[in-house]
Amino acid sequence: MSQGRLFCISGPSGAGKGTLVERVLGLVPDAWVSVSATTRKPRVGEVDGVHYFFMTEQEFTETIDEDGFIEWARVHSNFYGTPIAPIREHVAAGDCVLLEIDVQGAFQVRDKIPETTLVFIAPPSMEELEARLRGRGTDAPEVIDQRLQNAQAEIDASHDYDYVIVNDDLDRATAELVSVLQS
Ligand code: 5GP
């Protein structure tokens, strides 16, 4: 898989990856973001095929067996995976391809495609991350506790990333990410 550029964007839930990715899509003309598959239940407002492809565990396992994912991982007790066919297509078209995935998935992608650039979006602090997760009110308290536990492990793994962007100021972090994608 050559041509195009492939970027994995990771970071703890609540670090602001989604907002940053949405912003750069409007600023980098050939940027395209992959839609992942997941066995997690949709949150209010999430649309199948837009935010995720929502699958049963059986559908997910079948897709693994058919080599349909470039990577997959278990995150916060659900399965998540990146469908490989659209990635092939957009990389071949020369697009700037973004995968918003967790650290396990990012390392799998880099093992398969060593030219992949790994970008970690870090929260300003653990306190700020906790405040954001509780403030957005989309998850149950025990789910938030699990996400906070995982966050520290993800931050530790960010030492093996090519870039770490601290999302303390949305405009500055956006500009930094745009410059990484265009470098
Ligand atoms: P959420 O459930 O909040 O949408 O996502 C939870 C975590 O799963 C986030 O860290 C997100 O980056 C990660 N994730 C989303 N899609 C994928 C994927 O396709 N593969 C992997 N490995 N992680 C994913």
Q: What would your notes on this structure say?
A:
With 183 residues, the chain is of the alpha/beta class. The protein has a single domain, classed as P-loop containing nucleotide triphosphate hydrolases (Rossmann fold). Helices cover 43% and strands 22% of the residues. The protein has seven helices and nine strands. It has helices at 17-25, 57-65, 84-92, 103-112, 126-136, 141-157, 170-182; strands spanning 5-10, 31-33, 37-38, 53-54, 69-75, 78-83, 96-100, 117-122, 163-166. Strands 2-7-1-8-9 form a five-stranded parallel β-sheet, with helices on both faces. It has a four-stranded mixed β-sheet with strand order 4-3-6-5. α1 packs across α7 and α5 (126-136) runs antiparallel to α6 (141-157). The protein is globular and about 40 Å long. The mean pLDDT is 94. The structure holds guanosine-5'-monophosphate (5GP). Guanosine-5'-monophosphate (5GP) binds at residues 13, 36, 40, 71, 73, 75-76, 80-82, 100-102, 104-105.
Q: Main sheet?
A: 5 strands, parallel
The shape, in one word, is globular
Q: Determine the mean pLDDT.
A: 94
Overall structural class, as computed from helix and strand content, comes to: alpha/beta
Rg over alpha carbons: 16 Å
- Within CATH, the superfamily carries the name P-loop containing nucleotide triphosphate hydrolases
Please count the beta strands (DSSP E, at least 2 residues each).
9
Any idea how many domains? 1
* Residues in helix, %: 40-55%
Poorly predicted parts:
none
From the N-terminal CA to the C-terminal CA, the straight-line distance is 20 Å
* H/E series: EHEEEHEEHEHEHHEH
Which small-molecule species are bound to the chains here?
guanosine-5'-monophosphate
DSSP summary: helix tally: 7
For this structure, the CATH topology is Rossmann fold
Beta-strand content bin = 15-25%
**Spatial sequence of strands, sheet with the most strands:** 2-7-1-8-9
CATH architect. name? 3-Layer(aba) Sandwich
Query: What is the class in the CATH system?
Result: Alpha Beta
